[in-house]
Design brief:
Length: 143
């Protein structure tokens, strides 16, 4: 029972850390400091959650889920992370389009993994996926 409480506390702490990272990014984004927000968010993900975005982007679908679960992220945390990465990727589209597209493609892969492994259908996740696909299509069409 005590081990279960420790695990529950660790999962809750991961949620709080992820929430802080997102709040910090959104605060900087609102101030117009998008590039700084991306840099700080990327550093915080690496230092606080041991999530290296460059490494994450290089993972295949098979490796991706294991990489995230090794960090004790629940599917709820993984979806929250994916939503945050979608924000970063969207912001990157105006600064470094290739990086933004690569990140958004990874977000779509994460959403697909969540759909596959949880068997839970989410209209919100579907809408987010559709918006990402439209944004990528629009940017690729304009080039």
């Amino acid at each position: 029972m005590e081990q279960r409480d420790i695990l529950k506390d660790q999962i809750e702490e991961l949620g709080r850390v992820l929430g802080k990272i997102i709040a910090d990014f959104l605060g900087l984004k609102e101030q117009g400091n998008i590039t700084q927000g991306i840099i700080i968010s990327t550093q915080q993900l690496k230092s606080s959650l041991a999530i290296d975005l460059e490494l994450l982007l290089s993972k295949t679908n098979a490796e991706l889920l294991a990489y995230l679960q090794e960090r004790n992220l629940s599917f709820e945390h993984i979806e929250t992370l994916a939503n945050h990465l979608a924000e970063i990727g969207t912001a990157q589209m105006d600064v470094q389009q290739a990086t933004g597209i690569k990140l958004l493609q990874k977000v779509l892969e994460i959403y697909h993994l969540i759909n596959t492994h949880t068997k839970l259908y989410s209209l919100d996740r579907m809408n987010r996926s559709d918006k990402i696909k439209q944004l990528m299509h629009q940017h690729l069409k304009n080039d």
